[in-house]
Specification:
globular; hydrolase; Amidohydro-rel; hydrolase activity; TIM Barrel; two-stranded parallel ribbon; Metal_Hydrolase; alpha/beta; Amidohydrolase 2
Length: about 300
């Protein structure tokens, strides 16, 4: 595996850890049986120049397997809790990693009062929030939250607004999956109501053209290229231009699972392959992720 370096920084040194690469978008789906493999892969990523990865864990306290599975894409291979109540496992992986893994809680199954429930997760050790706009018509082809929970679209909208409010008031990073091709107006309304929230709309907002207006209008909004490696390789010039144009807002993100973190390095290699200037690569892989995460970093 090729070693990818930071310009002017010796890997493994204290400056490398302070300025190392950060992947802002992983998922757990990884039980305690894989704990040693997670530690070994974390150590290898550290040797490759990473200082942190951000991993998302689901919570499920009420839904049956059949109900919970309808909100997850069919291609996901779950190697963790069979009911997708994986936060405890993620927090243990994070503890064992000694700060390398930054845990976020996935809110798609959130029940009850938003503020008190999220505060409880923070007390357990969660460092930020993952949300997803899952109406009954969505880009990942799963059942919507309103139908699954038996709530109205307005009730669902109110819940998501409360999540944004909580993230803004508590200065937490919010990774929020949303498709600008279908929901650009809702995305813009969220940012209008919560201008101080530190939010990453991943996957380049799903559609770069409609999402560009959000990035232009809100320079504090972040995005990542999670799960887009084939697109980067297929259309390198277009993505190179996009990343350079939004070089202060793009973060490194892969969509990898904790049991397969070796795939993260492929994203670094793909970014290198775009021929980005070193200063832009450093922003994408280190500066912007740190700005997005803020106090969530140890």
């Amino acid at each position: 595996m090729k070693l990818l370096t930071l310009p002017g920084v010796e890997q493994g040194s204290a400056p490398a850890q302070a300025a190392g690469f950060i992947d802002v978008h992983l998922h757990c789906f990884t039980g305690s049986a894989w704990a040693q493999q997670v530690l070994e892969q974390s150590a290898e990523l550290r040797r490759q120049g990473f200082s942190h990865v951000v991993a998302i864990g689901m919570v499920n306290t009420r839904l049956s397997y059949d109900e919970v599975r309808t909100l997850i894409p069919g291609w996901v291979e779950n190697r963790g809790n069979p009911q997708y109540h994986e936060l405890d496992e993620l927090l243990e992986h994070a503890r064992r990693s000694e700060g390398f893994i930054i845990p976020l809680v996935d809110t798609r199954y959130l029940w009850g009062d938003v503020a008190s429930t999220l505060s409880g997760y923070l007390e357990q050790g969660v460092r930020g929030i993952k949300g997803i706009w899952l109406t009954d018509n969505n880009d990942i082809g799963v059942k919507g939250v309103p139908e699954t929970f038996g709530i109205t679209s307005e009730e669902y909208r109110r819940r998501e607004w409360e999540i944004f409010s909580y993230a803004q008031e508590n200065d937490l990073p919010l990774l929020y999956h949303m498709d600008a091709r279908e929901h650009a107006d809702t995305m813009a309304a969220m940012m209008q109501d919560f201008p101080r929230v530190r939010v990453n709309f991943p996957h380049f907002g799903i559609g770069r053209k409609p999402f560009s207006k959000i990035l232009d209008d809100h320079p504090g909004v972040y995005t990542d290229m999670a799960n887009l490696i084939s697109h980067l390789r297929k259309n390198p010039e277009s993505y190179r231009d996009f990343i350079i144009h939004y070089q202060d807002q793009v973060c490194l993100g892969s969509d990898a699972f904790l049991y397969d973190m070796g795939s993260i390095v492929q994203y670094l290699e793909a970014l290198r392959g775009l021929g980005l200037p070193e200063e832009v690569l450093h922003k994408v892989c280190s500066v912007n992720p740190r700005a997005f995460l803020g106090k969530a970093l140890p």
